[in-house]
Design goal:
elongated, mainly alpha, about 75% helix, 4 helices
Length: about 130
């Protein structure tokens, strides 16, 4: 009798869960946030090179594509913050029950969308 190791489920038979979706999205938004912070730093450093360079970036951010970028970065930061709060609570030893992980995952997903809408509508005067 051979001792065969168990086979891991592959993508065709694996069933997605809220927690796996939040976990993968958390990693993706982390990368997006690093890129976003880098662009924000470059944008603010352009002030040193003169008002003309700064105005070029401002014109870009006021365009439809620029507003889409701002909306995406706002959502990314909102998602990351809520997901980090979720992880902090789990690091303290709470929220490991299946029902609670589903609820907190949904709170992260829908909460980030709600926060993005709030921030984008409040910041509309600045864009």
């Amino acid at each position: 009798m051979e001792n065969k190791p168990p086979l891991s489920p592959h993508i065709q038979i694996y069933r997605w869960h809220i927690s796996s979706l939040v976990s993968i999205t958390h990693r993706i938004t982390g990368v997006i946030n690093i890129i976003g912070i880098t662009f924000i730093c470059i944008w603010s450093c352009l002030l040193l090179l003169g008002e003309n360079n700064y105005e070029v970036i401002n014109l870009f951010l006021k365009s439809l594509f620029g507003k889409f970028i701002i909306l995406g970065i706002t959502w990314s930061f909102s998602f990351q913050i809520l997901s980090e709060i979720r992880h902090l609570i789990m690091d303290l030893g709470y929220g490991f029950e299946l029902k609670i992980t589903r609820i907190t995952g949904l709170i992260v997903i829908f909460g980030s969308i709600i926060l993005t809408i709030i921030f984008f509508t409040l910041g509309k005067n600045f864009i």
